[in-house]
Write a structure and sequence with these properties.
Elements lengths: L2 E3 L10 E9 L12 E8 L5 E4 L5 H7 L4 E4 L2 H8 L10 E3 H9 L8 H9 L19 H28 L4 H16 L7 H22 L6 H10 L7
Parallel strand pairs: 1-4, 2-5, 5-6
Antiparallel strand pairs: 2-3, 3-4
Helix pairs in contact: 4-5
């Protein structure tokens, strides 16, 4: 793997490119929110050509150079949301290896992290211990740079393996291109909503109390959809499906 510090070259038309981001000072429970300091952005044009940025000021120029390429990201909603603080990212096609994998094998597997995907497609283990060091760091070490670059390369390789499998097995991908990937952009466009957690808990407790009273009165579990449906059918209120 050749790691090249600085801006990437211009992407060719429809050239596949993998993008991976790392941030300092992020909290695991808040990864759905933009926060932390940008550590680096790694851009892989295949397994042997990886560029790495360390300055926010380079982002706009870098992403402009990649505009003609076809972007690959793992859990793209995270990267797009985080980078969107610094530079606008217009809606564009993205091959999200996590979403693709969930569409292909959601009934088979329950975990879809990059290390899981790498293990399934390559049969090798992807060490993730270095990832923990980003939370409290403020500067990139050589080990962290290699780790970040490797993640971009692995994401690229996983995407190539997925595409080869889809082509070999003739798997239709309309669900991804017409639903999964567009929905990601729709979710990113949603403004944040404040939730009254205490209010929701009080409402849940209120409904649970009413349900318990009805259960005593009616003699069946009103919290069971199957039992409620059966009673409604027996009473002629609902039809058999």
């Amino acid at each position: 793997m050749r790691l090249i510090p600085g801006l990437p070259r211009e992407a060719r038309e429809n050239e596949w490119i993998s993008i991976d981001t790392e941030f300092f000072g992020q909290t695991k429970e808040l990864l759905h929110r933009p926060h932390g300091q940008m550590a680096c952005v790694s851009i892989a044009f295949g397994p042997n050509e990886v560029y790495q940025l360390y300055e926010v000021s380079e982002l706009r120029d870098a992403l402009h150079r990649l505009r003609k390429g076809r972007w690959i990201l793992q859990n793209a909603s995270y990267d797009v949301r985080q980078l969107g603080r610094f530079v606008p990212i217009p809606r564009r096609p993205i091959w999200d290896t996590m979403l693709v994998e969930q569409g292909l094998f959601a009934g088979w597997y329950s975990s879809f992290g990059l290390d899981d995907l790498n293990r399934r497609w390559s049969g090798t283990k992807l060490p993730k211990d270095v990832r923990l060091s980003f939370a409290n760091a403020t500067r990139m070490t050589q080990e962290m740079k290699q780790y970040a670059a490797r993640d971009a390369v692995v994401t690229y390789q996983v995407a190539m393996a997925q595409m080869e499998y889809i082509e070999r097995e003739l798997v239709p991908m309309r669900h991804y291109h017409e639903i999964d990937e567009p929905v990601m952009w729709a979710i990113l466009d949603m403004p944040p909503a404040r939730i009254n957690v205490d209010g929701w808990l009080r409402l849940a407790e209120h409904h649970e109390k009413i349900g318990a009273e009805l259960e005593q009165e009616l003699g069946f579990n009103v919290f069971s959809p199957d039992q409620v449906s059966k009673v409604l059918r027996d009473l002629g209120i609902a039809e058999e499906r």
